[in-house]
């Protein structure tokens, strides 16, 4: 019940008040739940929580805790998790599934408060819708597509929807940051999730890019600097982690979601160049391209040390397509024309797009999640680039390509929308318990000798990765010297 | 005897009739051979074999089989081999030598039918000769080289030779596809051989590029689309395999022969641009460059996981030189002038060329194979690029460089030709039994405990990769607790 | 005492005579030392040592040796060390510290002769000072910085200082080559040190670039070919080693010091282009860029096989900044204007610079060495590129950036200078015993079974890399079959 309501609150434009109500109700339920479960369960709370202003929640929260247990449990949650813990405890293409034998610190069999279940990946929806707004704007304003007689109304409608969505998601996530700061911190430490922290920034850039002409055609250039500052800081952190020799080095964490960091650069360059700026956008383009190179090569090599790279093809691979598509548009803006450079990036994205389309088993066997919105926006990006290309290379072929690809992108977004609605209202599992943020700081104790046995360091090997059929009978040689 | 004749049939231009005779005779011999060897030997045959049209061969083939054994053996051969089997069972720079203890499913001590011994690498000859045709065409038509007073006769002669060669090799390989489809399928599954499936496509592109002016100067642009379609499909398959996480991921299969996939792109771009096309060639150039980057970095890193990369320098490394040389010419055609971009690719190929020349021990200690033709065509490519460069940067130095490099390339081709003739007619081993396609689907049974012993999971280690001298004496500590 | 004097001789401009005296005195001391230590100690000497001309040293050297022991010891030192020995015996970001249990072939507790302690990394000083000369020249001649009213005097003074420094260091190192050829050979075999052999070549290029206008504005282009020949040969050797499958393959040796090989290319291209040459500089630029790509990706990936890459950030990482900064200036010269390409490289170096500045703990916890001069010259390079950029994109922002970065670079050089002086005169440890060249050719003998134990191939594992706490108690299963 509660699940359905909370899901709807984030999909449909909800006012902050409504959200508050939901949150409170979830929180209330959760405190009851917690009382039953005893002190070992609910320990996410922020130390920086404002004490006065949010009195009610604060009260509900406080009353639900045995003070003494709270202090003792605090240590367990607030201690920072090293990246390796995430690799050890989770698996799946988004590192979202708990491995067997691992324990989490929140009750597994209960539904957690809505805010705790609201992941940063929800911003994928904003990316999906706002990129559609850009695509329809481009479709309506490109001469080559004039024969379609499209008005800018679709752009207008989509832009407002994405604005409402962005505000709703942001407010919800802001509340999560306030009330469950440790949960947000853990998402930021999560090797895959951290890349989604670029999603809100890219969404805002997309909003600025897709703004209907009737609202404004000239954004103040100050806005650009204001928007790009957090992108710069975040990417300095991420790229720096790749270089430093710790647990987050690139040969370990490389994953298609890393593309989000780079798409931020190209989208920023595109926005800046379309505002008439020169040096700043070129800066972001250059940095983006350098790191894109590193990422492209690394992902293609599929190093065996890439622990987070999904073994099989997965919708996440569509992120491969987005970066060169956006780079193509950005370069066009920077140079003033769709030149060889623009074609270079565009053709790469086109080739990647087709290679994926012919290989991937769409939406089969994979668990739907909100992150899928982020995985489908690249289709919109490459469709938009195709429209721009058809504006340069006019002809029936490019027009057909533009329409087919725009149609495919729109259908895909509608498809994901339907899936989202189904999961939100019918299956009521759009926001499942987010185990990725609740893993225990320590590995569940295993008998030491058992681990060693598994690693093959003892006389008898019981399980083997490469060779599953192993005879238990002791080998002659070993017998020989053990007798 | 039979060996000599079949070899000659592919080197000298042979009519299809002659080839048929050879095949038949080989087949005949082989059926006799098979009768002696019993049911476990010859099981390569195609299920899609036309039943009526090829009556005689069909008969010869059928009569040679005990029907019951055929059905039982069929399973063994037609089952698809995983890439890992090739890595496990073979070694050498072309994965062409059987490892010790491995068994093959065809008789080792007899000469197999000619078609079974005719590998896809034979197309290397077509690459070698047709690239020479292009080089002599360029040499005769470049102003800077006018002082040599070369006519286009050499181009003409070489082009016709390569045409005959291409037709002969193609017909032979077509027969192989018809009669020994499983063998072709296994070549296609072979991690190194699969790259040589680009060789026929590139040969045709080279034929189109080297076509003498007296025949035609204007090829219909339709031809280009027709030629590039298979290149596109094949590279989608190959590049897709690199990306997907299976046994053919790039960090495992990266090998200089992968350059053939990329040379197809650049050669196609060059042909298309020289025909006056723009978008299509640029598409292939962009895709080729992106994957070239990935391949160049990966090969240079020499990851320890690169199972197929030869440990020592080997003629195969000359393929490094070809891609940038062809890219330089393609870029020149795309841009209309030998600009900084063309120089960039050209200088890289020149540097790679000289680094190899000073390091490699030419033709020493390596087993000659038909693939060498493919390894020597890069010399022709870089010589052609040098001639084009000398047309842009005129001067004695560039003229001398052109002549020296063209001479070296021609000498090399003549040298390989001599080697081919010697192996074909004197040593009679140009087409040895192609063990690479006859490996057994299953690893030869080894006592399980022996394998574990080797992997070091048991008490006593007998062989060690890094440390060959191991004292057999049991260590004190082990003694301590075993007594 | 002797230590202090010899250190000062290389920092302050010293005449060859002075150097000779120092060397002799060290040698004398060393021979006395050797007599006490017995025959196992001092065995570095050159077989190609001139017999007549350097009579005195020769005598001193010979007299210190028991002839019979000399011949026997010769074998130990003159035998070439494989790269793996260096990896096995040394650690640290510069592979400069001896691992525990390793022995060296020279007396550890005595100060060796000065020449033996004078490493190739001393050329770092020349790089640091000569790059400052270039920066001050650029600062004085750029219009955008005219408001500073700088004269070219600073450039003049710095240039002469760096000339004297270069001559002094070169003469000293020349003597080392003559008298201790084996030591130089070992430095050349050292996987990190070998990159510093580019330092003298780059220093000379920097000298040519920073030459004051009052001396000459037109260098003969012959000089460029003369200077670039050794760069070309050395880089053919280094890049060739990366590609060949030996112990020096890139996935093993990749280290920020490899940037020196590439900076040589870009600096050469810059010098050549500023002399008006075209093809040669473009050649070096193209080759440099191709290998820079490979290196950049490899270093960023931080492959676990990169044995020499420092685990933590270290001043050596500043070398990341230098290559794109110099590439930016070279490209500007090649193209004739600060175009998009120049910006591309410049912005990358700027981003890398800032990412390092915010992350590195300057000069803390690291042992100072002369190599630091090489690590700080990149700051000067990026400052110079910034000045050139401010000449193109005029404005207060770029002017401020130029001044701040030039100031930072100068301060850094002064800081390192102070550190050098302190280590030379106060701590007297500027030239410590250079253990990196004195490692024994063979690994100290370890009982074989102990090694096997450590590798986990025996029944009981004692130490484990991943799991330090291991209970010694034998596991039940093992007990079961050992009883």
Describe the 3D structure:
3 copies of one chain form a homotrimer. With 483 residues, chain A is an all-alpha fold. Chain A is built from 21 helices and 2 strands. Chain A has helices spanning 2-11, 16-37, 55-63, 67-78, 83-89, 114-117, 123-141, 153-179, 181-189, 193-196, 198-209, 221-243, 250-253, 259-274, 279-301, 319-335, 340-359, 371-392, 396-426, 448-454, 476-482, and strands at 90-91, 97-98. A two-stranded antiparallel ribbon of chain A has the order 1-2. In chain A, helix 11 (198-209) packs parallel to helix 14 (259-274), helix 12 (221-243) runs antiparallel to helix 14 and helix 15 (279-301) runs antiparallel to helix 16 (319-335). The longest helix of chain A is centred in the C-terminal third of the chain and has 31 residues, at 396-426. The model of chain A is unreliable at 1-76 and 447-483 (pLDDT under 50). Chains in contact: A-B, A-C, B-C.
Q: Poorly predicted ranges of chain A (pLDDT <50, ≥5 residues)?
A: 1-76, 447-483
Instruction: Give a short account of the largest sheet of chain A.
Output: 2 strands, antiparallel
Distance between the termini of chain A: 66 Å
Biggest sheet strand line-up of chain A: 1-2
Largest interface: A-C, 43 and 46 residues
Determine the oligomeric state from the structure: homotrimer
Instruction: Quote the average pLDDT of chain A.
Output: 76
Shape of chain A: globular
Coarse structural class of chain A? mainly alpha
Strand content of chain A: under 5%
Instruction: Give the tally of β-strands of chain A.
Output: 2
Give the topology string of chain A: H per helix, E per strand. Answer: HHHHHEEHHHHHHHHHHHHHHHH
Radius of gyration of chain A: 25 Å
Number of helices of chain A: 21
As a percent range, the share of helical residues of chain A equals 55-70%
């Amino acid at each position: 019940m509660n699940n359905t309501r909370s899901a709807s609150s984030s999909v449909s434009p909800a006012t902050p008040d409504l959200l508050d109500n939901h949150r409170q109700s979830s929180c209330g339920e959760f405190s009851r739940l917690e009382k039953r479960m005893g002190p070992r369960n609910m320990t996410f709370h922020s130390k920086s929580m404002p004490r006065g202003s949010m009195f009610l929640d604060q009260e509900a929260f406080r009353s639900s805790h045995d003070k003494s247990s709270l202090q003792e449990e605090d240590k367990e949650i607030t201690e920072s998790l090293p990246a390796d813990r995430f690799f050890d405890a989770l698996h799946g293409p988004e590192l979202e599934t708990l491995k067997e034998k691992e324990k989490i610190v929140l009750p597994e069999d209960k539904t957690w408060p809505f805010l705790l279940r609201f992941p940063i990946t929800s911003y994928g929806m904003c990316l999906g819708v706002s990129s559609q707004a850009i695509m329809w704007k481009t479709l309506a304003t490109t001469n080559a597509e004039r024969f379609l007689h499209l008005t800018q109304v679709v752009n207008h409608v989509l832009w407002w929807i994405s604005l409402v969505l962005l505000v709703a998601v942001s407010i919800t996530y802001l509340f999560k940051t306030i009330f469950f700061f440790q949960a947000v911190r853990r998402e930021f430490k999560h090797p895959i999730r951290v890349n989604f922290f670029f999603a809100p920034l890219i969404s805002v850039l997309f909003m600025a890019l897709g703004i209907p002409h009737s609202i404004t055609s000239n954004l103040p250039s100050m806005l650009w600097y204001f928007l790009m500052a957090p992108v710069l800081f975040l990417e300095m952190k991420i790229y720096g982690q790749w270089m430093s020799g710790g647990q987050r080095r690139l040969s370990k964490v490389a994953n298609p979601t890393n593309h989000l960091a780079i798409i931020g650069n190209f989208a920023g360059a595109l926005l800046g160049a379309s505002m008439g700026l020169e040096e700043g956008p070129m800066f972001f383009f250059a940095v983006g391209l350098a790191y894109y190179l590193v990422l492209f090569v690394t992902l293609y090599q599929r190093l065996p040390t890439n622990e987070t790279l999904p073994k099989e093809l997965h919708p996440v691979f569509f992120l491969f397509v987005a970066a060169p598509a956006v780079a193509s548009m950005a370069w066009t803006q920077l140079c003033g024309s769709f030149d060889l450079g623009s074609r270079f990036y565009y053709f790469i994205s086109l080739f990647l797009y087709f290679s994926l389309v012919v290989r991937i088993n769409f939406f089969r066997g994979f668990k739907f999640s909100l992150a899928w919105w982020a995985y489908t926006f690249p289709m919109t990006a490459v469709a938009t680039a195709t429209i721009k290309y058809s504006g340069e290379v006019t002809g029936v072929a490019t027009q057909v390509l533009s329409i087919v690809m725009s149609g495919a992108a729109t259908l895909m977004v509608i498809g994901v929308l339907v899936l989202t609605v189904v999961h939100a209202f019918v299956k009521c599992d759009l926001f499942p318990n987010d185990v990725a943020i609740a893993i225990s700081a320590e590995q569940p104790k295993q008998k030491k000798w058992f681990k060693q046995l598994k690693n093959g360091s003892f006389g008898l090997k019981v399980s083997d990765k490469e060779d599953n059929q192993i005879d238990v009978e002791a080998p002659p040689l070993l017998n020989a010297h053990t007798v």
